[in-house]
Amino acid sequence: MNHIVLYEPEIPQNTGNIMRTCVATNTKLHLIKPLGFKLDDAHLKRCGVNYIDKLDYEVYENYNEFTKKNPGTYYYFTRYGRKPHTSFDYSNKENKDLYFIFGKESTGIPKEILKEDLEHCMRIPMTSNVRALNVSNSVAIVIYEALRQQNYNDLLLEEPHKGKDYLEK
Fold this sequence. Notes:
Largest sheet: 7 strands, parallel
Strand order of the largest sheet: 3-2-1-6-4-7-5
Distance between the termini: 37 Å
Number of helices: 5
Low-confidence stretches: none
Structural class: alpha/beta
Number of strands: 7
Mean pLDDT: 91
Radius of gyration: 16 Å
């Protein structure tokens, strides 16, 4: 199973967008406190639209609580990573839990955490003109790369409401 982990997220709009992405991809969301907002915040609900009630998520008091409860393979996204996000095999043939960890918007994941597993620290390639992509964009890029390698698991490849022949009519 795929998991998105937000380490101390600060901006409710980003988390709301990530919530929608998690619902769309059948991905569990893990939120590590402190959060820069309340989960019932109006901004968060507005960004999550009507999907928050369909979200599978869990909140943790700190990183240690998260790691104790969640065994699996951890992948860390940092601008200091030396490998592109596409350099890993996420096909998950062993059916393990894969955790894609993103840091807070202002400072990222603490260096102390990253130093424990440099092999799994990566970055999304980009120019030197920007420091980092928006975290919600980064989550979408990464989860869809993992899902592509997993042949999109059980996600729909056709639009379910208007039908597969909609464009031909």
